[in-house]
Amino acid sequence: MKNTFKVILLGVGALVLLVFPLVAPNRYTVHIVNMAGIWILMSLGLNLAMGYCGQINLALGAFWGVGAYTAALLNTRFGSPIWINMPLGMILAGITGALIALPMLKVRSHYLALVTIGLAETINIIMVNEIWLTEGPLGISAIEMPELFGIPIDGAERFFYLVLICVVIGYLVARQIVNHRIGRAFIAIRDDETAARAMGVNVARYQVLANALAGVYCGVAGVLYAHMSTYISPDIFEFKNALFVLTMTMVGGMGSLAGSLVGGLALPLTQEWLRAIKSWQLVGFGLAIMIVVLFMPGGVVGLTQKIEQAGGIRLPWARKQTEGKPVAEEKLEMEGPNVA
Amino acid sequence: MDSMNILSIFIQTLVGGIGIGSLYALVALGYSMIYRSMGLVNFAHGSIYMIGTYFGIIWYRGMVMGLQVPYPIAFVIGVLLNAILGLILERIFRPLANLDLMLMLLGTIGLGYVLDNLAVIIWGAEGFAVNSPLPNEPIVIGGVALLPQMLLLITGSALLMVGLNVFLAKAKIGKAMRAAAQDRETASAMGIPVNTTNALVFAIGAGLAAAAGILAAPIVYVNPAMSAAVGLKGFAAFILGGAGSIPGAIVGGLVFGILEAISAGFISSAYTKGIAFVVMILVLMVKPAGIVGEVTVDKV
């Protein structure tokens, strides 16, 4: 009974997604949804590193940029196609993630937040200043739209399917990871690093792995973005966009992959919808963040879980509790302030 | 270029670094005091600094009903208005202080977003340059040219820092603030109104930020985007010196400012920001608790 409902829900969902580009009111709408797909990929990466492994990471913009610049440079200089750029972008962004993880082994909490911001800023400064490599602040234009199996993917509608495939694969891989030994190690580290270490978890290795994974996900997002927009410049990969990803993940639900889907879709669409009122939109955005933090710290997913618990019901789309509680519900012991 | 000349350029760069460093130090003091007393890492402090600068400068530039007031009076008004803003914000921040770091981070960032964009709505995104109330000709001492406003920034900041330390050490309410920062429960058992002292800490932090902003306004360009730039560096200074330490915030700010100025003047102006951050990361890797901070041991 329950399963039938789920299959139907999944089937309807798949159908809606498949026909979406055909029924969308205009090309711009499809473009916005494509962009949401790219945000979702980054949010999944952040969720693995921060939601599951408890690693504060504000350097996502840099990983995204490394992926995008890899694709853009390879394509404009050597004409290499997306199926070569994609693995290379993933590898390079993954390595960046692993490198950024190195200071994390030594530094913690708000210190860590700052270190990741600093490293991301430094990578952004390199993008602006190393003009021989990156064309500097003007950015790289005329990146080709991709072609796969002889079919040119040359409009937002066709690109939608490429993004969709990447998001579905990305989500399924992430789900495998969190249900695997790796995911359990991540959660153990997040909940209590000392206990995890005592149980024989190689904490350092998994912390590096978690950030490398975040890098790989952002790398995919970057390669897609470069080929989709055909133009990139350093300001796109600034800190504010890392914050945007952080926000959507928190609103959706940190520590829940479904949260990444919800937040990654909801926030870019809301932002688009409120575009007409510009600055007030951003004020509303800030207020929304505060409301989420103060009143529903588990995000939207945490809220639905709470409703289930309170009412003793299971919402039809609920999955078994394999993903662990959203981080927010755990009261992590903060170190007391150092008083000098 | 003879060696005498290099020396004077070096001194000039150093003074510039100390000037910008005192700006960072005053902003870092706000982070530090709030962290010490409430355990709250306030990522909106950069925005509070930006708003405080506007609160003073709008009077000085005659942007309020065409009423142009002299610089010192504008300074006082700006500091007071921002302190009042601090009192109000403390009420909003109070529930955040008990949350886990990630939520605290996001909540304060959210508030910063609100403040930044309100500033854009009220005062516009473009910003403006501010004329110095002092003469613009540099004072030349032994081949070293110094801007009067820079000297005002340095002496003003130094006075504020000394004043703050004396206040915390001597005044009754200052002692209460230190007690509340050290042990909240015991302090409140001793009859210290902890919430009131926290509100006062917030007001002082906001006031210091406004003072720094108004003193530095004629040197830097005033626009809403400066909240992120200076906020980040003040935060870096707060971490670099040792989170929660008052002398640490001052040392961290000065070190960061001098580092920036020297790397801009002698290594690469394009990589100023990058070099400062790289040095900071290296310091943290060698001394994770910052220059002055104490090492905390992980609790099991």
Number of strands of chain B: 2
Query: What is the CATH domain class of chain B?
Result: Mainly Alpha
Reported by name, the CATH topology of chain A is: ABC transporter involved in vitamin B12 uptake, BtuC
Distance between the termini of chain A: 63 Å
Report the β-strand fraction of chain A as a percent range.
under 5%
Characterize the overall form of chain A: globular
What can you see in these coordinates?
The complex is a heterodimer of chains A (340) and B (300). Chain A has 340 residues and is mostly helical. Chain A has one domain (7-326): ABC transporter involved in vitamin B12 uptake, BtuC (Orthogonal Bundle), CATH 1.10.3470. Helices cover 72% and strands 1% of the residues of chain A. Chain A has 14 helices and two strands. Chain A has helices at 2-23, 27-52, 60-78, 82-104, 109-129, 131-134, 156-179, 181-191, 193-198, 203-229, 239-252, 257-273, 278-295, 299-311, and strands spanning 147-148, 151-152. Chain A has a two-stranded antiparallel sheet with strand order 1-2. In chain A, β1 (147-148) and β2 form a beta hairpin. In chain A, α3 packs antiparallel against α4, α4 packs antiparallel against α10 (203-229) and α11 (239-252) packs across α12. The longest helix of chain A has 27 residues, at 203-229. The model of chain A is unreliable at 319-340 (pLDDT under 50). Chain B has 300 residues and is mostly helical. Chain B has one domain (3-286): ABC transporter involved in vitamin B12 uptake, BtuC (Orthogonal Bundle), CATH 1.10.3470. Helices cover 71% and strands 2% of the residues of chain B. In chain B, strands 1-2 form a two-stranded antiparallel ribbon. The longest helix of chain B has 36 residues, at 3-38. In chain B, 54% of the residues are buried. The model of chain B has no long low-confidence stretch (mean pLDDT 84). At the A-B interface, α5, α11 and α13 of A face α1, α4, α9, α10 and α11 of B.
